[in-house]
Amino acid sequence: MKKIFILLAVTLTASAISFGDIIVTKSGSKIVGKIEGIDGGKITVTTDFAGKIVIDQAQVDQMTTDEPVFVSLESGAAYSGKVTVSPNGVLNVATDNGDLAVTVDNVKESWRPGQKSPTQIRNTRKWAYQAALDLTGKSGNSESTGFGMNLRATLQGPDDRLEFFGRANFEETDGATSADDARAGVDYSNQLNEAWNWYVSSEFGRDVIKDTDLFVNTAAGFGFTFTNTDTRFLNLRGGVGYRFENYSKFTSREDLNAASMDFGLEHKEKLKWGNLVNRIKFTPTVEDFGSFRIYQDTAIDLPLKVEQYSVRLGFSNDYDSDADLSGLEELDTTYYIRLVLNWQ
Asked: What CATH number is associated with residue 322?
């Protein structure tokens, strides 16, 4: 009787150890855990010893699951069933219509029952939100430190993007207000194909220091995406627009109502230690290309241990070619450190 109990205990222990999905790499390593999904040549596995890890699908020789999963092949066909390995090393998916023989390389996607496929997730519009607090330093028309805030909400779909944004800056120097500006806007773009897209945008705001009671910029045009990968994004856009600028009674500068051109560049680079973002916007008037505004922003995001948070270091330049008409400097440069919160 004692031997029976010992044998039973050993059997249960062995079963507990082998319980779970199993991945065998081409080098012979065995990983036991829960296969969360396969997408883009990557297999995501949750393990007890290392949490969630990502494995290159090209390095995997075999895989088995202890529960039914969905498997999508390169042909587009999808099947559901437990995945096992036959004696010749081929994967078998135990579908309701019988076993289906496949190889690891032929699996395009895999996902758990009750979840959406990776393709469905990519084709679903999702909101993403970002809030940031700034510590700033400015040189130009004023030199000071201060406080600012930024908000951004983005609805991203497979072929379009809708973005709402706003920011405000408040600064004091020796008890006197040295910065008081705010702006908000909306930008929508839609892909015509992998490279070309069209866009419309509108932005309004005010700047007390520059005696601007209200400014409004609207634009529409086309964009071209040079590259869009997991590590790099580069888009150039150009179009036509309208500029309206209303100035306070304390300045001799005349209000601006003029058709304008609209040029912009957006560049994102994923680095090993952070993310680099560059944005440039150039808006000359059609009547006089010498009357223009250029806004440039360059920032590096450094992720923190808490996944949703990052620290952003950057600087921006706002050049107004007609600022001298108000007795102000054309260029304002802002340096900032931001604590950024991202959530969905």
From this structure: 2.40.230.20
